[in-house]
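Q: Start with the shorter request: fold the first protein.
A: Done. Sequence, then structure:
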Amino acid sequence: NKAGSAGALIELNSSHPEPSKQVLEALGNLPWGVQIKGPSSKSVAGWRKQGCDFLIFEIENTPAEVLEEGDAARILAIDLAMKPELANTIEDLPVDMVILDAPAPNAPLMITNLMSISLIRNQINKFCLLRGTRPWSTQELQSLRDIGIDCIAVDVSGFKPGELEQFKVTLDKLSKRKSRNEKSSALVPSS
């Protein structure tokens, strides 16, 4: 599958509590959504009425009633510092997918970062997105894919000219994920 814009996350704050009509018109048919801090049933219903395709909720300060089924996908933002046994309970929640924030968004992924992501990822069978702020390298993307990250969400506002196009090329060139059975066994030198 080819890389490209799969959706837009509209960031809102107290001075801009909802997207302008111009922003929504500019999105056209591109799926869009919002991350809501401290949502209410009324605010969620309003977003759904505006045609929102996905809603991102935080675990803290989110009433359970906003997770009712509807036309918009329900995404739960979870922290990598979450205890694995608590992450395991997400499986039973009425959410469609989860999103994790990259541990150090502007720094290279370290093995310890991959381990933290994998620890949480292995507790959750739902579709899992990882959000970052920079274009990851081919090896980083392959490592993320191999530990079960299903989708990458990037904030392209900080990309340098040409980085987005190069990132798309990198994504397009990724090889398919190997199943655990297909991975090669360890090579041990003989003595």
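Q: Next, the second protein, separately.
A: Sequence, then structure:
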Amino acid sequence: TRLLPFTLNQLTAQETIAITQETNSQFSEEERKFLLLGIAKSLCVVPLKIQNMTIGFLMLGEERDLNREPITEDKLRLATSIGEQTSSAIQRTRLYKQTEQRLMQLQALTTIEHAISNSFDSSLVFNILTQQAKQILEIDAVATQLVNSVENKLQYIAGSGFLTDEIANHRLGLGEGLAGRVAFERKFLFE
């Protein structure tokens, strides 16, 4: 969807404004629908900001009787404060999720390091590596394949999340398929 002129202006202006029936005639019909001006008699639009970047809006509308007091400067200040608290809560939630993700990654790396340093069983190490990679990357399936230099083919070592065991029995030649091309060209490829 394209940004409407008022909305675009609010993204850059970053200030709380009040729109009343007297001032809403400046908006196009499309923008009036977006801002719910056909329903609300007055509207307060508060930008939600994180580090001076607008990430959204808090739109406070009311269907007021014209005899009631319109949105005042005090109400605008209160709405701005509510917007700041909302932005702060969003930022704290984002930071908490990032911290949790980093902790999970560190725990997985510690598990892998522990397996490598304490086990001479390579299949155990590859199974742990595979499980941890699946968890860290939040993916559905992962396989570890090594180059069998005698056959010049990729050989399945460990895997998790596949619906069948076909991948364990299939050997790709170097240069065949995506995995074979990665092994042959020795660089990351994305498809």
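Q: Describe the second briefly.
A: The chain has a mean pLDDT of 83. The two ends are 28 Å apart (CA to CA).
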